[in-house]
Design goal:
Blueprint lengths: L1 E3 L2 E3 L9 E10 L7 E15 L2 E15 L6 E12 L4 E10 L1 E2 L2 E2 L6 E10 L5 E10 L7 E9 L7
Antiparallel strand pairs: 1-3, 2-3, 3-4, 4-5, 5-6, 6-7, 6-8, 7-10, 8-9, 10-11, 11-12
Length: 160
Amino acid sequence: GDHIRPRIRVPEAWHWPVNVSLSTEFGYQRRSYSSDTWTWEIRPIIDKQLGRWYLACNLALERSFHGLEVSKGVTFSPAVKVGYDVTKRVNMGFEYYGATGSIAGFDPLRDQLQAIMPAIDLNLGPNWEFNLATGIGMTAGTDHLLVKLILGRRLKLGKR
């Protein structure tokens, strides 16, 4: 499938105590990969670099437009990341991903998606993002082996 994920953030010049950004993602994936083919999410992101430690919390709201989950309406999918800068170019840590079900009433725990994944981030320069994580599902409703790869290009709009 394909997804597009624009993200905006509060400018560093505002000197907030944490970084705050908002990501939205609209995408399509084949039915053989996902029970929902057309989906949309809005993901507020709060993160902070504390010395060599990186902490992030994403509290995503998701909506399916075509597939088995359409009737659930808006669902809640939290994510957390804790990473440590091993070198200036390599950050290693753990990522947690959940999907608890409809915001009108969470699914039973056995049906929720809960996964933890060791992850590596590579600093490929100021304009590139690389993240690789592989892990396991912790509930019966989660795939048992998961692999995630993000290769991103940062675009700076406005004044330079």
